[in-house]
């Protein structure tokens, strides 16, 4: 293993000889100099792993030396050591991106801790995460076999996402083991949904989880009734792991009052799940009660053009007279314009904002080769979502809200899953094109591979025709027609799709947060 190389610059370096011997006995290589000029020269030739730099040296000061080192070698971590505890000095050093700051006199263990924190932290964190997951492996396996209710499955999925995030940094065999466990969990989750989903709709008082039609009733209306001003932010196609990477960016500005999840209805597709959220109704009820706002799959008209009207119908049914606005953001320019006019919305009691970017990333990844290469797997996809969030207008949107006395409820309509295994289905020319669910007449499929719903009304789904039935893919399966089968299999394999049964698609975030400054 390569020795970690330390450059230590201090005009009293001879006094520090015991510290240097201590570090050498620990296996580190230490190069000692007594001035800033020599430190800069050695950085140019030796490229140390870390620099310990005395702030108060004659000639070139520690801060001047720090600036020159950072100009030429911005990635070398520098630990500033000083006798002074002056706040302005600390701020200057921090402003020049020091890795750590120590106050004299320092003892050898402080130096050792600084090295481990600055140079070895990544390896230590990775090793610890690997050990911790290894110790939790059997516990997760036990949860997979023992989860028998919807709360248990939500807890299990949160657990798996936690370990996904922890192991993102480590690579290697543990990520493979976790992927195997997630696949095992999805297989068991599929069996659970097939056994229980129809029971959730068997009667009005059936025991079921919070689902898409319940979001306003259980989460939005109680806040409004308590006199709070609410921004309901729906980011289309946002998985729980995507929320976790976004959450880190919001943590400095918001308190997360309620970090919850709920179940998307089937199909886990925008036309069904988002319309159910905004209407407070299952799709079959929307079609029956508000036929002017429902568009069947085989019709050419856009399927989500009536969202504002559906919100209004729900508020009228529950006799809520709150003022509200609705905005759908499909481009960064539209997001910038929303931010420019955001102050005009603070007079409303409810503002609903839909951001479609994550769904657009998913489609772009399917259709554009470059995006597939940028996001070849889940970890890279999370990174892409994070980059979008940080650099798009939505970051500014949340910064503006963080200065207001408002409550923000953030959610989504469904998630997505990376598909790998093609299964065949045959239908007539009016059968829909979604890869994770099909509806139509006389569908031909292998019943062992799908959830078949012959009576759509039993699960709250509309029937465009008397003989319409639905089939749902599960796990990492996707539907492909026999015509041009091999082409479509290679084209869609490893793309992110939604509409079917998986934890990633069905168990989705629902977060209530308040600005820390409010």
Task: Please give a structural write-up.
By secondary structure, the protein is of the alpha/beta class. It contains 20 helices and 19 strands. The strands form 5 sheets. A 6-stranded mixed beta sheet has the order 7-19-10-6-9-8, with helices on both faces. β4, α4 and β5 form a beta-alpha-beta unit. α6 packs antiparallel against α7 and α14 packs parallel to α18. It is elongated and about 90 Å long.
The rounded Rg comes to 28 Å
Low-confidence stretches: none
Report helical residue fraction: 40-55%
- Average pLDDT figure: 91
Number of DSSP helical runs: 20
Compute the number of strand runs.
Answer: 19
Largest sheet: 6 strands, mixed
Structural classification? alpha/beta
Q: What percentage of amino acids are in beta strands?
A: 15-25%
Q: What spatial order of strands do you see in the largest sheet?
A: 7-19-10-6-9-8
Shape: elongated
Distance between the termini: 51 Å
Q: How is the secondary structure organized here?
A:
Elements: E1 5-9, H1 17-25, E2 29-33, H2 36-46, E3 50-54, H3 62-72, E4 78-82, H4 87-95, E5 100-103, H5 108-118, H6 121-146, H7 150-167, H8 173-196, H9 215-225, E6 230-235, H10 240-250, E7 254-263, H11 270-279, H12 283-289, H13 307-317, E8 324-329, H14 332-340, E9 350-355, H15 357-367, H16 369-374, H17 378-391, H18 393-401, E10 407-411, E11 417-418, E12 421-426, E13 437-440, E14 444-445, E15 451-453, E16 469-472, E17 477-480, H19 485-492, E18 496-497, H20 503-506, E19 507-515
Parallel strand pairs: 1-2, 1-3, 3-4, 4-5, 6-9, 6-10, 8-9, 12-17
Antiparallel strand pairs: 7-19, 10-19, 11-18, 12-14, 13-16, 15-16
Helix pairs in contact: 2-3, 6-7, 6-8, 7-8, 10-17, 11-13, 14-18
